[in-house]
Amino acid sequence: MDGNLQSNDLSGVVEADRAHVWHHLSQHAGYMAEENRTDPKIIVEGKGLRVWDQNGREHIDAVSGGVWTVNVGYGRESIANAVRDQLVKMNFFGGTMGSIPAAQFSERLISKMPGMSRVYYANSGSEANEKGFKMVRQIAHKRYGGKKHKILYRDRDYHGTTIAALSAGGQDERGAQYGPFTPGFVRVPHCLEYRAMDQGLGDLSGEAYGIACANAIEEIILREGPDTVGALCLEPVTAGGGVITPPEGYWPRVQEICKKYDILLHIDEVVCGMGRTGTWFGYQHYGVQPDIVTMAKGVASGYAAISCCVTTEAVFDMFKDDTSDHLNYFRDISTFGGCTAGPAAAMENMRILEDENLLENTTAMGSYMLEQLEELKGKHTCIGDVRGKGLFLGAELVADRETRAPLPEKLVAQVTGHCMAKDAVIIGMTNRSVPGFNNTLCFSPALIATKDDIDAIITSVDGALTTVMG
């Protein structure tokens, strides 16, 4: 860390944070207690895969900014310079007008997404998904008399924090205390093969299980009425619900079902997009063609706020209308979708991904990390399953391998806490998401990760499991 930033210089910052900042996903009682008071952690500086806190302690960040975002790592001067230069020239104009970086990035982005055509800019993943939902609803009114308006979503998937996005959220603890929710959203089953027995599908595995999970979606479509269902919204790999990779046969059958009933396929790439799984987008592993793709986090690696709702030309054409109806266009706006910092950062972020061959590194290092997790599984009986794609991996912890009873969330938190306290390694976990199943350790280091970085992460987890589980 910069020698000019000593911990005593930041005491005022810590106190200002304690007094005025409302942290995300945090209980502040410990910060305010009169006795045994804890300090909020302030991240002061980052470089590569490392960050430093207010006390000068160096940490290995195995979750890319805590929320799977900083794909190309910290301290990228070229991205900061691209943003600075653009903001000085032209910082903002509402999205009714265009900008040079928005036009240029949309062209680059579409070149990575065969079959897609149009980019609608916003500034968060939740907002991007809202745009997709609104498109589906407006199409229902324009073409189907408002009837084909229902949106299907999957158990354990997550699509954002707004009320409508939570209405499409398959993580009940995320939505707890925020209802009532928006009507017209319908849940379909998850596709976690390790938990097939919990679905009454314990004898099925592999492609048979994948097809059964997809067929369960069709059953719900038939129950609801195909003429009422407008879209199916899924993550390519379920993220916060437990890093769930789809079983063989699942995605082709899902695509077939959507086409059969004229249902738009909306794929939420907010986490998986921009190389996280080793391809530009997660869905590209599975040979499907979506109608709507949403993305955020890794699009600019956190150097600027940006999200995109990308559609096919066929979806875009549904909003082309030369009638006299004054409500004939997509009547939506995102104020900061007009900020030029996002696409300027995204352009440079994409250049880095390409020039440094980070997709290839993600595939190689992801395979290596998966192998290391499998070795840990052989050593620690509390690891029931390891899974993932690229540098997006999970290890599900269990109290008993035979019954697959989930390890209590409190013990899982002790594992992550031990990694932080002893080794200054920041790893993630499912928490306050899926009742009874917040038991998966989550790993998503920046796509620049090396074998040494991964070895350090694995060593820390090994030690934590040994300490916590004995």
TrEMBL record:
Pfam families: Aminotran_3
Domain of life the protein comes from: Bacteria
A single GO molecular function term of this UniProt record: pyridoxal phosphate binding
Keyword list, A-Z: Aminotransferase, Pyridoxal phosphate, Pyruvate, Transferase
Alphabetized Gene3D superfamilies for the sequence: Aspartate Aminotransferase, domain 1, Type I PLP-dependent aspartate aminotransferase-like (Major domain)
InterPro entries documented for this protein: Aminotrans_3, Aminotrans_3_PPA_site, PyrdxlP-dep_Trfase, PyrdxlP-dep_Trfase_major, PyrdxlP-dep_Trfase_small
Required co-factors: pyridoxal 5'-phosphate
Family label: Belongs to the class-III pyridoxal-phosphate-dependent aminotransferase family.
Protein name, as recorded: Taurine-pyruvate aminotransferase
Annotated source species: Litoreibacter ascidiaceicola
